[in-house]
Every structure is written in structure tokens, then in C-alpha cells.
Amino acid sequence: MIRNNEELKIVREQLARAESALESLRNEVLPKNQQMYHVMAEPCLDTMIELRGQIDAYLGIATVPEAADAGVDTTAIPE
């Protein structure tokens, strides 16, 4: 739980690192093995969802329902 602006800054930095890790996986793993990409990307996505939820809660923003609850196909990978 974020309690102040300094913690908000730290969580945003953590989110940026998770996004960077996902980008690396997309560039390095996806072209070689789509199934492995899905397995390796899942923890990054979970972390990103959690961190965004913390940021939204601190800022008083209603979090959008999770993709699965909204009927979004999370298995689709852009070509």
C-alpha cells in the first residue's frame, strides 16, 4: 500500500522495470518460442497489474476490471 508521494515514486519505478522486463521478453523470447513467452510473461503481467492497482488506489482512481473479467483475450499476441 502506497502511503505517500515518495512511495508512489518507488512503485512507479518498479512498474517501469516490470514493463522493461516484459519488453525484453517480447523482443528476445517471443520470436523464438511463443509458448515460453506466455509462461515467462505471466509474472511480469501479474506484477504490473498489482502495481497499477496500488497506484490507482493511492490516486483514488477506480481500477478497470481485470482483462479476464472484461472478456478480453489475454492470449492474443500482436504480430
Overview of this structure, please?
The chain has helices at 5-28, 34-59. It has 79 residues and is mostly helical. Helix 1 runs antiparallel to helix 2. The chain is elongated. The longest helix has 26 residues, at 34-59. 63% of the residues lie in helices and 0% in strands.
Q: Could you tell me the mean pLDDT?
A: 87
Give the total of beta strands.
0
Poorly predicted residue ranges: none
How many distinct helices? 2
Approximately how much beta-strand content do the residues carry? under 5%
Give me the strand/helix succession.
Answer: HH
Short recap of the structure:
By secondary structure, the chain is mainly α. Helix content is 63%, strand content 0%.
Question: What is the topological layout?
Answer:
Blueprint: H1 5-28, H2 34-59
Helix pairs in contact: 1-2
Features of this protein?
mainly alpha, elongated
